[in-house]
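Entry for the shared binder. Reason: the reviewer on the internal report wants the predicted structure included alongside the sequence.
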Amino acid sequence: MLHITPIVEQYKNQLEQNKNQNLQDISVLTQELELSINTLNQLRVLLRTKECLFNQEAEIYFFKIIKPFVNGRIKYFSKIRQFIFERPNASIKKQAKYVCLLIDELEKHKIRNLEFFHYIKHNSSSLDHIYFVRGDCKLNFPVDTSHYFSDPEFSTSHDNLAAQVVCYDLLSVYYQKELHALTNQNINMKREEHNPLMSCDLSWTASKTDLVELMYALHSAGSIRNGQVEISKMAEVCAELFDLNLNNVYKTYAEIKNREKDTTKFLDQLKMSLEKRIDLDNAK
């Protein structure tokens, strides 16, 4: 195991360095896939050397933990690449339906191998000497059929199935994130359809204090729902409409009240500006 550990640690370090990269990018997926395949091939070559001799305990650990860790990611990155290529270029609803179908397929595969999934998840070990030791296959135990076509020096009856458990965990998280992103995207689109004005680029270019002054004026005049709407609700709508943070409107109003002069200076300015515009329009 001494010769294997540096290879595995280097692989884990590279995965860690790449963890924030965009897995929607085919070039990134290809890079991750090549890294994983190269690592597995290094382990395959090393296992054939005289320097790499296992006792049974080390052999079980290799085929139960180490090889599935790498091989599971080969399956994972391959599945994501396939997903990127095959996902429908359609509505959000259809894309979400497609992701749900993939999640269902994952669950069906898990159910078909539920006993082994539980064995791995509960870290059982009673059958390790059968599942993860090379040699004669015990046909009275369930066997992953791919084992019959694998390299007998580099595979056991269940190491590939253990890799599928690793892949299942990673894909489940990936698909759920995709579904969550599509759901949020759909909610945002519905909100914009329901409130098209909220999606317009309307920026408040006066001061926030001016906006609070206007809100309180409208509230005091009963201009919105006869004055029965709460100031906090008005502030929430204005904040969303103009994409700004109004902070504590009650504190701002207190500051307006405490002005030594020009208590309603913004409203006065509005009145003057409108009168000026009317005069100019009438003069044309």
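Summary line for the report: The chain has two domains: 4-196, 201-283.
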